[in-house]
Write a structure and sequence with these properties.
Number of helices: 14
Shape: globular
Radius of gyration: 21 Å
Number of strands: 0
Distance between the termini: 35 Å
Helix content: over 70%
């Protein structure tokens, strides 16, 4: 449990600082600086990014997470990186083609109530592709049991850059178009930093992709697993973010801007799980490989008890203070209190 405690402590600190930045700025400061409509469009672009990013990943990152210790041989892992990079590049091209072809159909849902989204439709493409590659390199960091730095980049640095972007827009230094076009740049910078960390510090390298197919004995099982996780991630991300996508279509991005406030507050309860799972998942995976059921039982029990206690405390904290929280917001946001 030593490495879990060290890495999850660092990751928890990073995640909570990032969550605090997000809550303070996006929930309590930005509603006073930019309109609910602009705030809603930011959230809509992020929701579409998280839903669609699963398509170019093809479940390959989760294959790495599952079979890293099974493959053992370094060349096998490195050759899989080659397979993953090429496959994700091809999948990204197919996604771009499909997204462009479906433009009129998709925008048909948004033209009436969320016309602000129409000119920024294509911004989803760079957001999705950068996040797809970020996910793979974050999962690589997980198997290396080094998640603190990627967590810092994703949770804190990205939010700081978005905060700067919003302030520049609110003080009319950036135009509306420059503001929204700045979002892919922010996520692109974060992606490049995570990739740089994986390559330089964690020694991410690529070997001949054909070497991976040299041993075909378990390929079918491994790709079947990856395909299953591909659909799990799609359904999971859709479940988590589809509400805002539908709300923007039927009621407009302004309604999503208001609805997003309690949504972010409620998601704070998930922060401890995200922190612990980043480092505990590879440990539990190794225990499965070694058939160490006692270790799995001990880990799951300890993690579950801690998450129950922390989650209950956070839930009570939010519910007890809900009226005071919404008093800090413009009056139009108070209608969302029931959502919390």
């Amino acid at each position: 449990m030593g490495i879990i405690k060290r890495q999850s402590l660092k990751s928890s600190i990073v995640n909570y600082v990032g969550a605090l930045l997000g809550v303070v700025f996006f929930n309590f400061i930005f509603p006073h600086l930019i309109s609910a409509e602009h705030l809603g469009l930011v959230r809509l672009l992020q929701s579409l990014m998280f839903i669609l990013m699963a398509l170019p990943t093809l479940g390959l990152g989760h294959m790495l997470l599952r079979y890293y210790n099974v493959w053992r041989e370094e060349k096998k892992v490195e050759s899989f990186h080659g397979v993953a990079m090429i496959s994700m590049a091809i999948a990204s091209i197919l996604f771009i083609v499909l997204y462009v072809l479906l433009k009129d159909y998709i925008l048909g849902f948004y033209r009436e109530k969320s016309s602000l989204f129409v000119p920024y439709y294509y911004l989803v493409i760079p957001l999705v592709i950068t996040q797809a590659y970020v996910q793979y390199f974050e999962l690589f960091s997980m198997v290396k049991l080094r998640v603190a730095i990627p967590s810092f980049i994703r949770e804190i640095l990205t939010r700081i850059l978005l905060v700067v972007l919003v302030y520049l827009f609110s003080y009319h230094i950036l135009s509306e178009q420059q503001f929204f076009y700045g979002m892919p740049i922010v996520y692109g910078i974060s992606a490049l930093l995570i990739i740089f960390y994986a390559v330089k510090i964690l020694k991410f390298t690529i070997y001949n992709p054909f070497y991976f197919f040299k041993d075909r004995s378990e390929l079918k099982e491994q790709f079947f697993y990856g395909g299953g996780l591909f659909f799990v991630v799609i359904f999971s991300n859709t479940h988590n973010f589809i509400d805002g996508v539908i709300l923007s279509s039927y009621l407009g991005v302004q309604a999503f801007g208001i609805y997003g406030i309690p949504l972010v507050l409620g998601q704070m309860i998930q922060v401890p799980y995200r922190s612990i799972s980043l480092i505990s998942t590879p440990i539990i995976r190794d225990a499965w490989v070694e058939n160490d059921l006692e270790k799995i039982k001990t880990l799951n029990k300890g993690i579950a008890i801690n998450l129950l206690l922390i989650g209950t405390f956070l839930y009570m904290l939010l519910i007890v203070n809900r009226i005071a929280i919404f008093k800090l917001l413009p009056q139009q946001y108070e209608i969302a209190m029931a959502v919390l």
